[in-house]
Amino acid sequence: MRGLPAALCALALLVAACGDDGGDSSPPAPTPTPGTDRVVPWQRTETREPCDDFDALRQPYFGDLHVHTRYSADASIYGTKAGPRDAYDFARGGEIFVSDADEQPTRAVRLARPLDFTAVTDHAEFFGEVSLCTTPESSVYDIRLCNILRQSEPPDRQFAAIVQWLFPAGVDHPPPSLSFCTMPGVDCDAAAVSVWGEMQAAAEEAYDRTAACGFTSFIGYEHTPSRGGRHQHRNVIFRNHHVPPFAYSQLETAAGGVPQGLWTAIEDHCLNDGSGCDAVIIPHNPNLSDGLQFFDPIDGAEAQRRQDREPLAEIFQSKGGSECRFDRLAGRGVGTADELCTFEQIKSSAEVPGQVPPPVDEYPRRNLVRNALEDGLLFETTLGANPFRFGFVGSTDTHNANPGDTDETGFTGLQGNNDATPERQIRDSLAGNAGGLAGVWAEENSRDAIFAALRRRETFATSGSRPVVRLFGGTLDGVTCGAPDFVARAYASGTPMGGELGAVRGRNSPRFAVLALKDPGTAATPGVDLQRVQIVKGWVDAEGQTHDAVFDVAGAADNGADVDPDTCAPRGAGAAELCAVWADPAFDPAQRAFYYARVLENPSCRWSTVVCKQAGVDPFAPDCTAQAAAADPAFADCCLREAEDPFFSPLVQERAWSSPIWYRPEGIAAQAGAIRTANNAVDLTITLAALPAGVDVARAAVTVELRDDDVLLRALLPRAAVRVGDDGSVALHVTGRANDGSVADADSFVTTRVEIGPFRTETTRRWRFADRRLAP
Amino acid sequence: MIRRAVTRLARQRALHFLVGGALLLAGVRLCAPPPPLPPVLDSSSDDALLLREALALRLDDSRTVRGRLVELAASLALAAPGDRAGLEREARALGLERSDPVLQRHMVELVRLAAGAPRQPPDEATLRAYYAAHAARFATPERLRLTQIYLSPARRGAQASADAAALLARLDAGTLTAEAAVALGDGLGSVAPQIGPLSRDELGRRLGASFADAAFALPPGEWRGPIASSYGLHLVRVDAHLPAARPDLARVRGRVLHAYLRERGAAQLRGALAALRAP
Predict the structure, then answer these.
(1) How many CB atoms are closer than 10 A to CB A67?
(2) In chain A, what residues touch B132 (CB-CB under 8 Å)?
């Protein structure tokens, strides 16, 4: 019986009407007035309801800024069928189906904890081609290249498809599109624009513009140059719905250089086009770039351009950690002796076919973020600008449309059919991990607020769990751990992570306040206690040598906590919260440096350990090898021992990294004075403890700018207002009137920026309002 | 070729069945919230059914399949290299159009796409009905705005409970303001004294699920506690308990449409499979 009785059809139609409740047919709600009377240090660029939940001293939000769906060519090759709307649904807590080993969407997955924000960042290369090849009505659907994209194959047979599809991203002079785009009647550009439009629509639909502010979506894409398999990939994240008409990929921008071509495209078609478009560019997994991701700038202007365009770097994702590297078998690291840098390392330094992983002494130094940060200090010395001044985010780089699916106790897999089964996860993907998360400190969960946090680098990264970390640096007057006014005082007398400091305490070290809270987890899977908090310092000495050092500042490495090898349950206690106010015992005011916090959880079972145990293979068992042989040869690597591998461990210490705070000898050391709100009169003295190298203060133009959400004052100082002290310090006396109506009668974040010729420095404090004066 | 195949599919009785079945399923869903969707393809037997249908629809006559058959036969030297017709004939003689995994997957995928593809967008009434039946999925959940005073066991040790009780007594007696009590508590750094409004889930993500459950059970306007969070003890006053709110369809139209189409496509496919299984 293959027919449906007509009566049943009629019944179905009848039933279809029964749920109608006469829902609202009115058009979208009237446009609310943008902005509120809340004082925020960023402009409101959107039409949306103000968020009910707002904290001027900021709150933590977790997200994923690196997510692929079926519109990415490689994800399509891996069999991913879910699209951008599915990805946003998943991020919000909805259920989606991801592909199985046969590339069929049969595996139901749902986040135990929704995310606060997400950007779908499909590879912009081949948007049009992928769309045409996966649309049965397309005239090219039947051609060989399209079949290659869609066919189901195991991981070890994907190479040909990857090469045939992705080779343009791996050459210096790529063709504008794949070959079939030149066939009569085939318009890949139009198809690409259509995909780009759909990605924008999906983001818009997912964005909660109500006052509940339950979820923020960002429009974004990935720019994917891979010279011979050396990744120089970047995610472009747009602030709001104003985006370029085209997602400019490597195919359109290669002629301008990597990544300068992308910078130019974003400058021309976004930042400078007058549309209200704004964007940040985030380089990611430099650990597979063979050192190319953070290349030498050609001059100070390019260094500054990079700092402006790329305020963040992805320090952790499913394809490994990029903080630092230590080889336990060799007993050496890549520019470090930090033994905690064995964490989640990929052995290769690029995805070059057939590459033999380089030994530790030959591993590219700038595959690692910490080394790049150190070298950035060196460039600041020689070029006057630091090209590698980035804060940290983590993300997943999932190719399964499952953002934030980082739970190590229930590993879904992130690479389509490549890691869809336990056997493939262990045999083919053991070195990968469940991915990281991006944390931001923002006033509310809206695009403007979160984007502003990304821009000012008040961000942190995690390796997948959700501890939170805050770092402040400055004089930190009265800042005491545990005090209810800890945060308010820290913002008033210090800069948050992502900012910079001058010699705020003379020759003494600035104080650093770090606060970490454990991941609360879920009812089913409580979070793991914290073990300790460290401050990581990098600096460059007078001889131009870079260094790093790691200081334990709270908690204890020897707290006795470990893991029950039978159950993977945590054993022993750690800390729910850790806090310290710390000064650098080796501080040298002449040495530029950076400081960031690293928060370590107690040990826990790695995702692979959980998968192995579920397969009946216990990595801790003496007869593990026999268990693996009995279960399936695919599980042989479950029994890998630390003594046999430079990086692998069945236990991990999940972690979080705060963005750095930079110390510059010529940074702003002190501010004294105020803005009188009655008449907007500004009277402020700014002190730099040292003269910027190579800058002639007597001849160069000296400009001071004060801004909160907009420019309060921008003043070109007369010569008389600039005074150089006998000790080399520079005092700038700023007088004038702030713009009418721009100064708030309330505590406000104010950024003070000094420009002396090409030299720039700035710092942000929360100024206090009292007695009709707004003062730092 | 594909367009013709899809057209042929549309003429099949099975498709008539699945369209009707999908309507029925959609109708049922509009009346009651559905259980979680089962997987769309949950076994190899589904693939076998779809392959059988693909062959019945002669999808193996497509350019893709014929090209692959020629390649396979050439690799096995079943005929002279340039004899495409001979190579295809020999490949078919071996049944490769049915047994080659790549061709199997290709044809199954075509049928799956055709069967699960949305026929047309729903009309306004249908979409409204769907939204009405699934409004909870798109609603803003109930939310709490609360004031909390934190007492850290890490700093106060066993005294934390006693300190909490003492503070609570003074708050209840009206001898201490909320602001003064906050100043006597500890700072948690990432959690302000005034929180929200946040949903139960959002509050759980900040302070732990058990804290959120306890807070949502509190009456508004009264100091209660101590309530344990993932970090320590809290005195809590619920300042506002906001009910769940259902946004206008216009504000969630895109998400509703996506959910409708996804659900309907899955139902169509299940209907097609059921029809194919029928004797």
Answers:
(1) 35
(2) 19-21, 23
Q: Which residues pair with A459 in a beta bridge?
A: A440
Q: Which helix (H) or strand (E) holds A766?
A: strand A759-770
Cβ pair A277, A287 in contact under 8 A: no
Given its phi and psi angles, is residue B82 left (phi above 0), alpha (psi -120 to 50 degrees) or beta?
alpha
Could you read off the pLDDT of A721-766 as tens digits, one per residue?
Answer: 999 999 999 999 999 999 877 788 899 999 999 999 989 999 999 9
Tokens of A446: 């809206």
Torsion angle (degrees, nearest 10) of CA B245, B248, B254, B256? 60
H/E element, B26: helix B13-31
Q: What is the pLDDT of residue B44?
A: 58
Considering only residues 502 to 531 of chain A, which have any Cβ-Cβ distance to chain B shorter than 8 Å?
515, 517-518, 520-523, 526-527
SS3 B91: helix
pLDDT tier, A23 (very low <50, low <70, confident <90, very high otherwise): very low
Model confidence at A35, pLDDT cuts 50, 70, 90, reads very low
Which residue of A15, A23, A141 is in closest CB contact with B131? A23
pLDDT for the residue B266:
85
Helix (H) or strand (E) holding B251: helix B249-277
Q: Which helix (H) or strand (E) is B241 found in, with range?
A: strand B233-242
pLDDT digits (tens, 9 = 90+) for B82-93: 899 999 999 999
Question: For residue A589, which amino acid is it?
Answer: P
| Option in A11, A108, A523 nearest B24 (CB) | A11
**Across chain B, how many H-helices and E-strands are there?**
15, 4
The whole-angstrom distance between B106's CA and the closest CA on chain A is 6
Non-local CB neighbours of A526 within 8 Å, separated by 6+ positions: A520, B230
Coil, strand or helix: which one is B81? coil
Residue in B with minimal Cα distance to A489: B189
What is the spatial distance between Cα A689 and Cα A507, in angstroms, rounded to a whole number?
A: 10
Token pair recorded at residue A174: 């790529």
Of A14, A470, A484, the CB nearest to B183: A484
Q: How far is CA B87 from CA B61, B75, B91, in A?
A: 14, 10, 6
Of B47, B152, B248, the CB nearest to A24: B248
Q: Would an 8 Å CB–CB cutoff place B177 in contact with chain A?
A: no
pLDDT at A21 over 70: no
Query: What does the pLDDT look like over A252-298, one tens digit per residue?
Result: 999 999 999 999 999 999 999 999 999 999 999 999 999 999 999 99
The answer to whether B277 faces chain A, any CB pair under 8 Å, is: no
Chain B nearest-CA distance from A189, in A, is 22
DSSP A417: G
**Which 66-125 residues of chain B touch chain A by CB within 8 A?**
67-68, 101-102, 105-106, 109-110, 112-114, 117, 124-125
**Residue recorded with tokens 């590219």:** A364
Asked whether the predicted pLDDT for residue A563 surpasses 50, the reply is yes
User: How far apart are alpha carbons A557 and B278 in whole angstroms?
Assistant: 65
Q: Which two tokens stand for residue A397?
A: 């780089």
- Phi and psi angles of residue B39, each rounded to the nearest 5 degrees, phi first: -55, 150
Query: Which DSSP category does A350 fall into?
Result: B
Which amino acid belongs to residue A178?
L
A47 near B CB under 8 A: no
pLDDT tens digits along B33-78: 334 444 444 455 788 888 888 898 888 888 878 888 998 999 899 9
Residues 423-482 of A with CB under 8 A from B: 466, 468, 470, 482
pLDDT score at A615: 97
Instruction: For residue B160, count other CB atoms closer than 10 A to its CB.
Output: 19
Q: What percent of chain A has pLDDT over 70?
A: 95
Q: Does A202 touch chain B (CB under 8 A)?
A: yes
